[in-house]
Specification:
CATH class of the largest domain: Alpha Beta
Order of helices and strands: HHEHHEHEHEHEEHEEEEHHHHHH
Strand order of the largest sheet: 5-6-10-9-8-7
Distance between the termini: 66 Å
Helix content: 40-55%
Structural class: alpha/beta
CATH topology of the largest domain: Rossmann fold
Number of domains: 3
Shape: elongated
Radius of gyration: 24 Å
Length: 332
C-alpha cells in the first residue's frame, strides 16, 4: 500500500462503535449543523478543518461557515475525494501552516472508531505532529443525547476563559448549563427583543446594553464575549440561568410557543415598532425622535410607558395594544 490511492478505503469506513452507540440512543444525529455547531462551541480556541465526502455538505458548510464559527476563521471546509489522497495531504499541510490543528469528520463514511486506523490515517497524510482528529464519537454522544443531561437547568460551569479576539482588554468566557437548552431557546427569543435566533442551528445570539455578546447553543453551551471580567461573566450567566429556569417551567406547562407568536417575533424590528409609534418626535421620552425611541424599546433600554402621546391619547389605543403585545415577554 505504497501508493496514496491504496488508502482510499479509509475514507469509506463506518466505525462499528459509532453505529452501536447510535442504535443504543435510538436515533440518528439531528443534523450536520448540530454536529458542527457543537464542535465549534467546545473547541473555541482551536482552528478546525471540516472534512466531508459530500459535495452538498461541502456547499452547506461553506455557505454557513461564518454562522457556525465562535471565533473568526475558526473553521475551514475540505472535501475528501476518493482516489485523490495527494490533494488531501497538500491541503491539510497548507491548513496546518495557517494554524488549523484539528479535523472534524462530518460524513458518516469518514468516522473512525479505531485508534489504530486513526493513527494510520495521520501517518498517511504526513502531518502526524501538530494535527489531530476531534473524537467524532464524543461529539455525537453529546449531540444525540447518549450522555443524557438532566432536563431541569439548575447550574452552570465555566469551562474556559480566553482573551477576546475583538478587544484584547476583554475576555471570552465559555460555560455550560447542566441541561439542554433546546426547549427554552424559543422562549428566550421571545424575551430578548434584539436577539437573533437561528432556529435550524439551535443558536440564539444577542448583545447586552454593555456591548457584551452572548451566544447560547441548544447543547447547553453559552459563550460570553467582550466581557470585562470573570465576575461580570458569572453575573450574566446567573441571570441567564434564572431566565432559562423560568422558560423551562413555562415550556413544561404550556409547551412550545405557537407559530403565530414566533412569526410576530421574526417580523419585529425597529421599523415595525416605529410604524406603531405616534411619530410626533416630541422628546417626552427623553430621545431626540421616535426612531431613536424605537431602537431603545427593542434593546430594553426604554419602556413603552415613557411615550406620553401613545399612553394618553385615545387615537393611539390600537397601536398601544399591538406594541404591548409584541414587546411583552412571556418570562416577565
Amino acid at each position: 500500500m505504497k501508493e496514496a490511492e491504496g488508502y482510499s478505503f479509509l475514507f469509506f469506513f463506518v466505525g462499528p462503535n459509532v453505529l452501536s452507540e447510535l442504535k443504543k440512543a435510538g436515533k440518528l444525529v439531528g443534523s450536520l449543523d448540530e454536529l458542527v455547531i457543537h464542535a465549534a462551541g467546545v473547541y473555541t480556541n482551536e482552528r478546525i478543518v471540516l472534512l466531508t465526502t459530500s459535495r452538498h455538505d461541502e456547499n452547506v458548510l461553506s455557505e454557513f461557515k461564518a454562522i457556525y464559527e465562535v471565533t473568526p476563521r475558526q473553521l475551514d471546509v475540505l472535501r475528501v475525494e476518493r482516489g485523490n489522497l495527494k490533494s488531501l495531504i497538500d491541503e491539510l499541510k497548507r491548513l496546518l501552516v495557517l494554524g488549523y490543528n484539528k479535523a472534524l469528520l462530518c460524513s458518516p463514511d469518514l468516522m473512525l472508531s479505531s485508534k489504530d486506523v486513526e493513527d494510520l490515517f495521520l501517518e498517511v497524510v504526513g502531518v502526524r505532529r501538530g494535527f489531530s482528529f476531534i473524537n467524532a464519537l464524543d461529539v455525537l454522544q453529546d449531540v444525540v443525547g447518549i450522555r443524557k443531561k438532566p432536563s431541569k437547568p439548575l447550574s452552570f460551569e465555566v469551562k474556559r476563559i480566553l482573551p477576546c479576539i475583538a478587544d484584547s482588554t476583554k475576555l471570552r468566557v465559555i460555560a455550560e448549563i447542566n441541561a439542554s437548552l433546546e426547549r427554552v431557546l424559543p422562549y428566550l427569543y421571545l424575551h430578548f427583543k434584539s436577539s437573533k435566533y437561528l432556529e435550524p442551528l439551535g443558536v440564539l445570539t444577542f448583545t447586552t446594553t454593555r456591548d457584551e455578546m452572548i451566544s447560547m447553543y441548544s447543547s447547553g453551551k453559552v459563550c460570553v464575549v467582550k466581557v470585562e471580567s470573570e465576575s461580570r461573566a458569572k453575573e450574566i450567566l446567573s441571570e441567564l440561568l434564572r431566565l432559562i429556569s423560568k422558560a423551562h417551567d413555562l415550556a413544561s406547562k404550556r409547551g412550545q410557543p405557537n407559530e403565530e407568536e414566533l412569526k410576530a417575533r421574526r417580523e419585529l424590528n425597529i421599523m415595525s415598532v416605529y410604524r406603531l409609534l405616534p411619530k410626533t418626535n416630541c422628546g417626552a421620552c427623553g430621545e431626540q425622535n421616535c426612531m431613536a425611541f424605537a431602537a431603545k424599546l427593542l434593546s430594553g433600554e426604554a419602556k413603552l410607558s415613557m411615550c406620553r402621546p401613545l399612553m394618553e391619547q385615545p387615537r393611539f389605543k390600537e397601536a398601544r395594544e399591538k406594541l404591548n403585545a409584541v414587546l411583552s415577554s412571556p418570562l416577565e
